[in-house]
Design a protein that fits this description.
48% of the residues lie in helices and 19% in strands. Strands 2-5-4-3-1-6-7-8 form an eight-stranded mixed beta sheet. Helix 2 runs antiparallel to helix 3 and helix 4 packs across helix 6.
């Protein structure tokens, strides 16, 4: 029986989010002219704030604008690798590294569960020593090119918990895994907090801090 340690990525393991920085990083290296489209990405964010589009569509629009409609894996890999290296160098919370080391020492299976795209989250997770990654997938065409469209669900809120449950079953761990410790900074992960045996609110924003205090969940400052 394997105990699990499940981590959110953005602003939990990292200090700041990774999605927009990844797109800007990629545009700078692959097609700097795409940075001229940033005002359009800002407009799409206003559309999301006005509830004209959902988070998944917002991601697809910004991916299309800054990375392109499609990209071949051989062109994507150097962008992902350089971004993952930069993330580890400058954007990892010290407390996250300590927690990862502790959970690994305890023999827990380390799982990164993030709404961010797996297309780069996999590389960050590998460098940090995670065993598995659950995240937002991308459509891959018959030509092997990665499209600016989400495959399945955007791993956010209740969808994240559904994807964790699907991973548990696919991994043969249903009814077999042990204690689950879950870390996140955001109240959108309330469904997964409620499901976990040991919820840990990491550098929580106001709504999560209030929720954690009302539920008696642990609160940690990872710096």
């Amino acid at each position: 029986m394997s105990d699990l340690a499940i981590y959110d990525l953005d602003r939990t393991v990292t200090r700041i989010g990774t999605y927009t920085p990844f797109l800007i990083h990629s545009a700078l290296r692959r097609a700097p002219w795409r940075l001229l489209l940033l005002p359009i990405t800002a407009a799409s964010m206003l559309g999301y704030a006005a509830k004209l589009i959902d988070r998944g569509k917002l991601k697809e629009i910004n991916h299309w604008l800054l990375l392109g409609r499609s990209i071949h894996p051989k062109d994507l890999k150097p962008l992902v690798d350089s971004f993952a290296d930069a993330t580890l160098a400058r954007n990892i919370r010290p407390g996250a590294l300590k927690a990862i080391a502790r959970d690994k020492k305890e023999g827990r299976r380390l799982v990164l569960a993030t709404a961010s795209y797996r297309l780069y989250a996999d590389a960050i997770a590998k460098r940090l020593g995670f065993d598995d990654v659950i995240g937002t997938g991308s459509v891959i065409g018959l030509d092997e090119r990665l499209r600016s469209r989400i495959e399945g669900e955007n791993a956010y809120g209740e969808a994240k918990l559904r994807m964790i449950a699907a991973w548990v079953e696919k991994s043969g761990l249903k009814g077999k895994h042990g204690h689950v410790r879950f870390y996140s900074d955001h109240a959108s992960d309330a469904p997964t907090f409620e499901w976990a045996d040991e919820p840990v609110a990491v550098n929580p924003h106001g709504p999560l801090q209030r929720l954690a205090k009302s539920r008696g969940w642990a609160i940690e400052d990872w710096g």
